[in-house]
Write a structure and sequence with these properties.
This protein is of the alpha/beta class and 241 residues long. The chain has helices at residues 11-15, 18-30, 46-50, 54-68, 79-93, 97-109, 113-120, 140-145, 150-157, 180-183, 185-202, 212-224, 234-239, and strands at residues 4-8, 34-37, 74-76, 110-112, 133-136, 163-164, 206-209, 230-233. Strand 7, helix 12 and strand 8 (230-233) form a beta-alpha-beta unit.
C-alpha cells in the first residue's frame, strides 16, 4: 500500500480546531504513513458554491486542484469538504472537458479520513483507548452524499474503554448547514435543540462526529444549556491512548 498521504485539513480545522488535524496526522503516522502537509492549501470552495457564487467557487477549486494534483492520496478531515471535492467539482466544471479530466483524477484519490482508514489502509483498530460513554452524530454530507454510516462506528467499536450508544435521531441534521445557521438562526437553533434532546437520552458524556462544523454547532448549544457533554472529532478519539 502507499505510504504517503497529503492532508487537507479544511478551513474550520485550520482556523478553529487545529488539534483535529494533528490527531489525524498522528493516527496516520501510527499505522505507517508519512504525512505530506501542503502549506499552500486554502479552501475547497464550498462556502462560495453553497451561496451560489459559482465563479469564485471555480477559482478556489482550480487552486485546490493545482495544489494537490500530484498527491497520491488526499485525506480530508470533513465529510462536507470531501463531498465538495468528490461530487460538486463536477458541477462546477461539467462543460470543460480538460478540467473534468483533472476533477475525475482528484475524485479517485480523495478520501474522508474514516473511509481512508477502512478502504485504503484497511485498518479498523488503531490502538486507541478512551474511557468515555459516547454517541455518534451522522453529519449530513457524509451520510447522504458519501454514504458514510457504518465506518465511523466500526472504528469507534475498536476503541478500548469506549462505550458507544446510539441516539434515537442519529441521522437528523444538527442545524448548522454553513450559512444556513446564520440566515435561519431560529430554525437552526431549534434543530440543534432537537438533536441535543436525542443525545441526552443516551446518557453519553461525549458526542463524536467526522465534521467539526456539526460539533461546533452542538457544543455551542450544549454549553449554553450548561450540559456536561463534550465533543470530539473521530480523529481525536482515535488518537487517544
Amino acid at each position: 500500500m502507499a505510504k504517503s498521504v497529503s492532508l487537507f485539513v479544511t478551513c474550520l480545522v485550520d482556523q478553529l480546531f487545529p488539534p483535529v488535524g494533528l490527531a489525524m496526522a498522528e493516527v496516520l503516522e501510527r499505522i505507517g504513513y508519512s504525512i505530506d502537509f501542503r502549506q499552500a492549501q486554502t479552501c475547497c470552495g464550498q462556502p462560495a458554491f453553497n451561496s451560489g457564487h459559482r465563479e469564485p467557487a471555480r477559482d478556489v477549486a482550480r487552486y485546490f486542484l493545482d495544489t494537490f494534483e500530484d498527491a497520491e492520496f488526499v485525506v480530508v478531515a470533513s465529510g462536507s469538504c470531501c463531498s465538495m471535492i468528490s461530487h460538486h467539482y463536477a458541477d462546477l466544471f461539467g462543460s470543460d472537458s480538460k478540467m473534468m479530466d483533472r476533477v475525475h483524477a482528484m475524485e479517485a484519490k480523495t478520501y474522508e479520513f474514516s473511509r481512508f482508514l477502512l478502504d485504503v489502509a484497511q485498518v479498523d483498530d488503531v490502538g486507541a483507548r478512551l474511557n468515555r460513554v459516547a454517541t455518534y452524530h451522522d453529519s449530513c454530507h457524509a451520510l447522504r452524499e458519501l454514504g458514510i454510516k457504518k465506518g465511523p462506528r466500526q472504528l469507534l467499536s475498536k476503541v478500548e474503554g469506549l462505550e458507544l450508544r446510539e441516539m434515537p435521531v442519529a441521522e437528523e441534521c444538527c442545524g448548522f448547514g454553513g450559512t444556513f445557521s446564520v440566515k435561519f438562526a431560529e430554525l437552526s437553533g431549534a434543530m440543534a435543540n432537537t438533536k441535543i434532546e436525542s443525545i441526552k437520552q443516551t446518557g453519553a458524556d461525549l458526542v463524536v462526529s467526522i465534521d467539526s462544523s456539526c460539533l461546533m454547532q452542538l457544543e455551542g448549544t450544549m454549553r449554553k444549556q450548561g450540559l456536561p457533554i463534550s465533543t470530539m472529532h473521530l480523529a481525536e478519539v482515535l488518537a487517544s491512548r
